[in-house]
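Weekly sync, protein design subgroup
Attendees: M.S., D.O., the rotation student, P.L. (late)

Item 1: inverse folding check
M.S. brought a backbone from last month's batch and wanted to see whether the design step gives back something sensible before we order anything. D.O. pointed out we never logged the input encoding, so this time it goes straight into the notes. Structure tokens as presented (263 positions):
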């Protein structure tokens, strides 16, 4: 296999492994729109990173983290409905990023690559970011697994049992932000949330426990990456969207073939 295919496969598998457990919480807590909001803000992070002349991965992580903190702060004030707030911030940050990039005519930016991903252009440095961020995210998820499950089931009961609901919720948002930042090169700003949601939704019908669902979501995502890359190589289709299409087909299969209560 060519080196770029090996890097693409390793990058895609790494992102899928991280996205599985985290995507399970996104599905359980119905945070899909929140994920979209953070993903759209990634383009603003790219523009700011170019302006500040810093590493783009780091710039995207910082932008996602700052937006997550802002969202938590605004949600606590409750002056506007959460879905309305997310809609405003999602489209505002995406548009602001596009406008900011238009003021950088001397900088050549692969806008299509950032919007829809460029899996075949994954570099060795990208792999370091993916696996370094993945180890951090999985380690934090392991540490926060029980508190996250507690607030997912019942936040008020979790608070009575001594769980700091605000801190745990913020930690989850920050982890989503990190995954979006490291996955942006793989799947693109507009498709990132699909890799969090679709494998987890497919795994839901195959699982009887939260832990099994998290593992199955990672496995489903990895299979989607392998099938999507194979399809892209065979038919010369865009790699990122091909992965998402394969994940969607696996989701449909899970709905048609499995008849059992989901978690």
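Designed sequence read out in the meeting:
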């Amino acid at each position: 296999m060519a080196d770029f295919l090996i890097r693409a496969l390793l990058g895609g598998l790494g992102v899928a492994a991280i996205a599985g457990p985290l995507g399970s919480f996104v599905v359980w807590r119905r945070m899909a729109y929140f994920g979209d909001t953070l993903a759209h803000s990634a383009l603003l992070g790219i523009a700011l990173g170019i302006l500040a002349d810093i590493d783009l991965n780091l710039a995207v992580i910082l932008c996602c983290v700052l937006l997550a903190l802002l969202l938590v702060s605004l949600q606590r004030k409750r002056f506007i409905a959460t879905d309305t707030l997310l809609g405003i911030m999602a489209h505002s940050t995406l548009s602001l990023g596009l406008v900011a990039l238009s003021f950088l005519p001397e900088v050549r930016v692969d806008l299509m690559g950032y919007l829809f991903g460029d899996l075949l252009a994954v570099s060795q440095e990208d792999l370091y970011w993916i696996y370094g961020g993945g180890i951090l995210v999985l380690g934090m998820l392991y540490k926060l697994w029980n508190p996250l499950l507690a607030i997912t089931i019942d936040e008020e009961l979790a608070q009575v049992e001594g769980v700091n609901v605000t801190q745990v919720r913020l930690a989850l948002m920050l982890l989503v932000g990190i995954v979006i930042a490291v996955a942006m090169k793989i799947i693109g700003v507009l498709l990132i949330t699909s890799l969090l949601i679709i494998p987890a939704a497919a795994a839901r019908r195959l699982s009887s426990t939260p832990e099994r669902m998290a593992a199955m979501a990672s496995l489903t995502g990895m299979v989607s990456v392998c099938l999507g890359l194979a399809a892209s190589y065979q038919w010369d289709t865009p790699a990122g969207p091909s992965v998402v299409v394969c994940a969607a087909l696996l989701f449909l299969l899970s709905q048609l073939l499995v008849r059992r209560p989901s978690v």
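Discussion: The mean pLDDT is 87. The two ends are 39 Å apart (CA to CA).
Action: P.L. to compare against the previous round before Friday.
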